[in-house]
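Input sequence (137 aa), recorded before submission:
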Amino acid sequence: SDTVQVRHTSANDPNTDTVTTLFIGTVSGTFTTTTKGADPADTTPDAFSFNTLTGVNPHTTQTSNVVSISEVDAGTPISIANGEYKLNNDNWTAAAGVLSASNTVQVRHTSANDPNTDTVTTLFLGSVSGTFTTTTK
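Predicted structure, token format:
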């Protein structure tokens, strides 16, 4: 009794079959491989947080620390509540957008008019959010 083995190189494209057929006399057998599907985009970044500032002057622009966004693919939605954000060294904006492949982000808002009052800005990245809080003196 003889043993036969076949092999082939799988396809370059996702979800693609490669079929090799072996014929021995009037009998044949097939060997099929299917490449895995394209990985879905990872739109869930690692947790992130911004600094908290206390004793800030009333009604002044306050800017958070810069945060590096990691473990997320390009195309992840970004939006903000009660402030503006800046990706990398782009302009400040309050408009919803999407991340590119690698980013840093910073947020800002205007502090409260009243003393001892919190102002909270929330940045949303995919399903993860982080807050920047300031408290007036």
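Checked by second reader. The mean pLDDT is 91.
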